[in-house]
Amino acid sequence: MEHVFKGRTLAVINDLSNEERLYLFNKTKELKEAVVKDDQEVLSNYRIDDPTFGIYEVFLEDSTRTRESFKNAAKFHRVKLSSLSTDSSSFNKGESYADTFNTLTGYDNRVFIIRSKLEGVCRWLQSETSGFAERNNLPFTPSFINAGDGKHEHPTQELLDEYTFLEDNDWNTDSIHIALVGDLFHGRTVHSKAHGLTIFDKVKIDLIAPEELEMPPTYIAIMESHGYEIRCFPSIDAYLSQGEVADKWYFTRPQLERMGDRILQKQDELRKSITFNRAHLDIVAEGTKFYHPLPRHKSHPVIPTFLDETPFNGWERQSANGMLVRIVLLALFSGKLGEDFLPTKRVVKSNKRVEFIEKVEPKVKKKSAQYSEGVHPITNGIVIDHIGAGDTTSEIRAHMTSITKVLGLHGKGGEWVSTSSNTEDRYKGIIFRPDFQQFDLTSLKRLAALAPGSTLNIIEDGKIKEKYRMHLPPKIYNFEDLGCKNPNCISHRAHDEGVPAYFWKTKGETFVCEYCGKLHSFKEIWN
Ligand code: NCD
Predict the structure, then answer these.
(1) Rounded-to-integer distance, Cα 194 and Cα 191, Å
(2) Which residues, at least 6 apart from 257, have a Cβ–Cβ distance to it below 8 Å?
(3) SS3 for 208?
(4) Which residues, 6 or more positions from 183, have their beta carbon under 8 angstroms from its beta carbon?
(5) What φ, ψ does residue 473 adopt, rounded to 5°?
(6) Could you give all domains of the chain from N- to C-terminal order, each with its CATH number?
(7) What is the per-residue pLDDT across 82-109, written as a single tens digit (0 to 9) for each?
(8) Burial level of 422, CB count in 10 A (0-12/13-18/19+)?
(9) Residue 474, preceding peptide bond in cis (omega within 30° of 0)
(10) What are 408-423's pLDDT values in tens digits?
């Protein structure tokens, strides 16, 4: 039977299903008990124990807990542990991520742990190195573990956070009420909670942050899609002035290193609104637990040190749990653990073809029929109609220019902005190309991606021979003039990593970047 975990990648928390994560937590609980009892027999069942098994740490941003807990986890496993010295590597000679990690894959390394400013790097390398492994007949494809990518996600932190919440919930997954406090804008650990907290059936989440540090709309949209109950407060004071206070508080540090000058000028004020103080102590109920991914700042901690020796302290155990969760994650991805895991819900990617190019029966127009103004019926060629219906005339013209460019519709003919027959839309664009014949499937797909809602008419001998209506395709990629608009995304042009833009359509009419998860409107995805 196929091993469910072996060779997997954890780029975002959603890469592990809820039941896979709960399995991992169960194994972590057993491991923790064995560590307390020093039960060497049980511990040896967890250990990879293979000096040729290569684990590689590549940290391009600072780290203490994540890097060191993985290092100690790898030492527990008795494997070949390496770390790339990024100050003196060929990154500095302009080498791409793909070339660098293909090289390291060729040296028999099976798990890569990466922290980078570039968002989506693990997703990209997973696909690049599997091509490399295939070309070079390697007996494996490597796993990638995201140890924090820019402002995007921090899935292994999310694992240890969820594990700690469950410990404090007596392993009950019915519900959670949690306050996220601090820098919700830059904090990738809180972003991973948008999908992560779905392990609980009912989620109530209170977001406490001043406007400048608010949770980005992309993650709010995800939380809403999961049915979380969300409330927002600008400060701890405002939060405590109302009655319903969470029994779990998750603090994050203001990430000054990621902020612009404008926000930095206000740092004292911002910090004050998200810092716990002695006056708050009288209001917060007994039994409340505080957590923090750490580090906390020695001069300006959002959880002050006078709380260390109180029962509020959940962050120390949270941090120690990090190594245990990571030991289990490495054991699963190596194939050492997880053979007995039987998923009840098989996650199968749907192969159902989505018909985004609809063939429609052409209506036969009577001789006297009205044609859109200015378009004299052509005898042979193509007519693309209903372009950009509902847009302004200048938007429609710009849109037709890109369609002409992308589809290579050069030659004679024209573009026209006409009155739409649909009164709500007012205007629509029409492109006509007499004598233009070559319109293959690829061009049809391109047209659907560029101009959903439009129709393509293929005209022969004065009659419509074929007619197609375009709908938004489920994914859009393979176009030169597509681009993710997040400047930190690995696929953003500025980084020159050769990563082609790739978007998925969400349930609404928005597009999410395959790499960094940023939501775009349909128009935003085009350069
Ligand atoms: C966090 C990180 O780097 O995302 N720390 C961590 O990994 N434990 C949070 C932070 O830097 O504030």
Answers:
(1) 6
(2) none
(3) strand
(4) 209, 213, 252, 253, 254, 255, 274
(5) -75, 155
(6) 13-154+323-334 (3.40.50.1370), 155-310 (3.40.50.1370), 357-473 (3.30.70.140)
(7) 999 877 777 878 999 999 999 999 999 9
(8) exposed
(9) no
(10) 888 888 898 988 776 6
Look up the pTM and report it. 0.89
How far is the C-alpha of 250 from the C-alpha of 185, rounded, in Å?
Answer: 14
Q: What does the mean pLDDT of the chain come to?
A: 91
Confidence of residue 370 (pLDDT cuts 50, 70, 90): low
Tokens standing for residue 368:
């006297």
Instruction: Quote the tokens at residue 58.
Output: 């590549």
Q: What is the whole-number distance in angstroms between the Cα of residue 112 and the centre of ligand 1?
A: 19
Rg (CA), the chain: 27
The rounded distance, in Å, linking the Cα atoms of 128 and 122 is 10
Relative orientation angle of helices 441-450 and 393-407, to the nearest 10 degrees: 150
Instruction: Give residues (CB < 6 A) around ligand 1.
Output: 65-66, 148, 154, 157, 188-189, 252-253, 255, 293-294
Mutate to test the pocket of ligand 1, among 60, 69, 157, 302 (most ligand atoms within 8 A of CB): 157
- The answer to whether the beta carbons of residues 152 and 188 sit under 8 Å apart is yes
Beta carbons of 250 and 161 less than 8 angstroms apart: yes
**If phi over 0 gives left and psi between -120 and 50 gives alpha, with beta otherwise, what is residue 258?**
alpha
Q: Which residues contact 186 (CB under 8 A, 6 or more apart)?
A: 151, 213, 255, 258, 259
Per the listing, tokens 């400060």 go with: 235
Index of the ligand 1 atom closest to the CA of residue 253:
12
